[in-house]
Amino acid sequence: KISKFQNTMAEKTLILYTNDGTPYGRPVKILLETTKVPFNISVVNVREGEGQKPEYLKISPVGKIPAIVDSDGFALAESVSIMKYICDAKNLEDSWYPKDLKKRSLLNAYLDFF
What is the pLDDT of residues 25-77, one digit of tens each? Predict the structure, then answer.
């Protein structure tokens, strides 16, 4: 049996681990949908302890949601870090996350505040 947290070789798109109960997954989902980055959602039921399962802790070491696993197996947690990664890894337009260091730094000051 394959765990829902196991990334299989057949998986060709980014996987977003989240659930409808967390506000932190929504911005990530909106970014992916708006920019048309292909992704699948895997629902993590933290109330039933799924966030603390060993398979999930390999993806998100502290068991938090949201988290992602990209098509190459790279795993990352924390919504702001995920969104920054998506903008760079998927080469999104500069208007989403500036490539200019000073503009990016000013945006990071706001993003990192939360």
Answer: 999 999 999 999 999 999 999 999 999 999 999 999 999 999 999 999 999 99
Which is it for strands 75-77 and 14-18: parallel, antiparallel or unpaired? Answer: unpaired
Q: Nearest CA to 7 among 78, 44, 63, 55? A: 55
Tens-place pLDDT, residues 77-102: 999 999 999 999 999 999 999 999 99
84: which residues sit within 8 A by CB, 6+ positions away?
A: 97, 111
Range 46-63 burial, b when 16+ CB lie within 10 A, else e: eeeebbebeebeebbeeb
The C-alpha atoms of residue 7 and residue 11 are separated, in whole angstroms, by: 7
The pair of structure tokens assigned to 24 is 């932190």
